Amino acid sequence: MKKLLCLNDCCRLKKRSIDYNDMKRFLLTIILVTSIKLLVHAQDINLIKDYNKISSESELVSRLKGKKFFLDLWAPWCEPCKEEFKHSDTLFNELKKRDIVLLYVSLNFNVKEVDWKTDISTYNLKGFHVLANKELENSLTKLIWGHPGGYSIPRYLLISSTGKILLKDALSPDQGTKLYNQIDNVIK
Question: How large is the average pLDDT for residues 68-93?
């Protein structure tokens, strides 16, 4: 923001107008750089290492090394998924109290990695992240919906530290207390 004010002040002092396209490029650069910095420096946002090599739910579970996790299946094109992101901070904190990690898996392997990462940063999605490849997507959809390739999102699951599905159709984050009670009843 300081850079914008400085640019504006400098132009006023020199009695120059700012070219619209130059300003647009400048603003987009600032937004992109800021988004990348937020993603890189956000201590609670973790891209799972070599996520593009994970091809099954068992490999996914092994990456979380014996932790219970709440699985949020979404995609960058899914507006209902993004609506639920309004509750992501509260969800992250409530799960943390219960020693449960939050894992976001983006389905649709055709999504551009930059779009996926931009959404993670824009919505400040604290937790672990995987952009599913075709094999992982098929493995998850077969496990959850009974056949590879077809799915309905957003979808939420609670998985035990051993990989057992505790809740196959958990309530959505916008359900707040109802969701946390549902989780508490299962993990007791």
Answer: 96
